[in-house]
Amino acid sequence: MRAAVRHALPMIAMTAGVVALQLVISAADRQFYMTQLVMALYYTIVVMGLCLVMGYAGQVSLGHGGFFALGGYTSAILTTRNLAAHLRPETLQTLERIGLLWSRTDLYGAPLATLAPWPAFVAALLLTGAVALILGFPALRLKGHYLAMATLGFGLIVYRMLLGSAFTGYADGITGVPPWRLAPGVTVSGAMDNRIVNYYIACGFLLFVLWFLRNLTGSRHGRALRSIHDSETAAKAMGVNTPRLKLQAFVISAVLAAAAGSFLTHFNGGIGPSEADAMKSVRYLTLVAAGGMANIWGAMGVSLALTFLSLRGVFGVYDHAVFGGLLIVIVSVAPNGPGRWVADLLRRRRPTVRSSGAAAEPAT
Amino acid sequence: MLRIRNLRCGYGNLEVVHGASLHVERGEIVGLIGANGAGKTSLLNAIMGLLPPREGSIELDGVSIARQPVWHGVAHSLVLVPEGRQLFSAMTVADNLLMGGYRNPDRDQAIAQALDRFPRLRERWRQPAGTLSGGEQQMLAIARALVARPRLLLLDEPSMGLAPLMVKEVFEVIAELRRKGVTVFLVEQNAMAAFGVTDRVYVLETGDIVMEGRPDDLLHNPEVKRAYLGKGFRNVWE
Q1: Which of B99, B119, B149 is the last residue of a domain?
Q2: Please, are residues B120 and B46 in contact by the beta-carbon 8 Å criterion?
Q3: Do A226 and B102 touch (CB under 8 A)?
Q4: How far is A145 from chain B (nearest CA, A)?
Q5: A364: nearest CA in chain B?
Q6: Which of A340, B49, B165, B166 has the greatest count of CB atoms below 10 A from its CB?
């Protein structure tokens, strides 16, 4: 009972923090912060998913921008492509009755029938999961940085394809993505009067991901993932099916990125090719490193703060430089994360506070 | 229990083991000695499935296990203590032991028993494995393997890098395992240490098994003496 409470406490505190933040922002009359905050929340979900692959399984992915875009574009295309002319009216009616289709009229009163956001979302997750499986299967059977190379190539290809094809709207991307009604009164959209609801939707999603990843990393499978990071040969010798576990973590992570992409696309009402830009993927990677690698809380905190500031335009023209510089500093000064670095610094300054003395104990 | 026939394995163009045959019977402690680079570790890795054999057969209890995935063997109680221990150094002693029981549903009970045997590890429970002393690390490596409940335990150079006193303790543990009915296949460079605990010994020389015998017989074999025991050995022994 006590352990259960202790386990739930961080989640309860997070929920309280979410509510408190909303009240503070509303009280300060800064509702316009909500828009960037919601976007930062969705990007942070990508970072947290990447944390599972990078921090725990020790595999570098440079394709998470691509997965995010894949999820977003799939939702965008399926919910904007008009099927009214392609299907018989009876078929349309049947599909609408079972909730797969959504008929309405466009701005000029012409009939418009598209896939509903839910099935589009599911399709986005399935497609991204399948792509991640195909990408990861060969790359993760090998030891080393093959996944980084495979995903980098994937990200570049996705970016070029999105930019170059009419199907995805060239450089403009896809606009006019409809709001996504999750439940009565709960709609994913960027409408002004809908800001607070969307803040809670995004926070709810984030909390779910946090809960899911915390349970996963604390489980036998999470321990096995960490052991792969530590010594893949030994993990194998313990009976861990390493290629399979790495692949599972990678696919879960890619699907989380796609889910975030899908939500943000409905929130923004559209998506552009810049989401698949290699710089985006590098940014996600930087945030995982800055959060302390195998540290979901760290990744979440750092990502929320920096992404929000970046979206507010605080870094101005130095936006990319800030993240590039951060990556260099982290890798060269604090490869184990800033938290560990500060802890080491404090310990060095005051050597007397060593109590249990893990590293200090003389060898027997 | 374990039967290997004409095993060949290697890396890329390089063949390291050229057709080795050996067997380990239930309850036995069998040693494999040889110099650096003789192919001892490759042979063990081939048994585990970490290195796919090119030719030959490996049977465990009459069932072929060549080319099967490693985890399959672990699930059937074929357990390896890898060369250089290969602990999860950033993870705690607790997590290392839990990883040892990755394929063992009764891991909690097995861990409790391992801790009774190595009480030192209980004191170190929450400490990262990398911060333990060399001897403690070897104990943890063996304890981690025991948590998997091995029927056949493969040990790769358990004496490597240890002080003589620790080597003695490690081999005491191995002798204890025999009493518990665990079959052990032991790879060692330290031939003297291996002779003290084994029932039978194979000698591996540049990928070929050149000799097999009881430790007592090998001990008096002039060739073995020359190759593995050193010139000063006679004076120490007699």
Answers
A1: B149
A2: no
A3: no
A4: 20
A5: B133
A6: B49
